[in-house]
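pinned: reference chain
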Amino acid sequence: MTKYEIMFIVKATMEEDAIKKTSEDLQKLINNKTSRVLEFKEMGRKKLAYPIKKEVSGYYYVMTVEANRETIAEFDRKVSINENILRHLIIKVEGE
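pinned: its structure tokens
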């Protein structure tokens, strides 16, 4: 298994419950038979450096996961088509 760090930004214009549900759904994508979330941090609402999809702020989340390549590819695919996610970044953690 490989360690990854995933950051994603959720639209701030949504209701509080919808924001929470979106972050929980993304955790469930990782938590399966072969992969798991090691650490999950809610960084809170922050102003974006520049508008993204006409949004000026968003809720930032960071998670450290242990996953295989297929799970990360599926996560990337689903996040890319999710309208509630403004941006996401997946980084492979080296040296561990």
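why pinned: The chain has one domain: 2-86. The CA atoms of residues 10 and 19 lie 7 Å apart.
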